[in-house]
Amino acid sequence: MRRLLIPALLSAAIVVGAAFAQLPEVTPQPAPKGTVAQGMEDATISSKVKEAITSDPALKDMRFTVETANSVVTLNGTANASDQIARAMAIARAVDGVKSVINILAVKTS
Question: In this predicted model, what pLDDT tens digit does every residue of 20-30 receive, in sequence order?
Fold first, then answer.
């Protein structure tokens, strides 16, 4: 009985090994857009844009928010002059990963 067991186990191991050798190679796919990965990327972009704008001395008086969806940044808030808005838009566009910028900034009227 023992003489038959070893060759049977060896044969089974060869068959299993051959079966695994024929499996296709699996490569990981990137996360599709609109997922947690995109949300994290958008949050990073928002942080970088906000930091870049607030670090500019000419824009220190601006009151604004930054929202990002699918790498499209929306700036919303107020500025003292239209040149501040143009400067904030240019800074936001220059941030790595930004596809485009939507302007909802307005000049204060009083």
Answer: 666 666 666 66
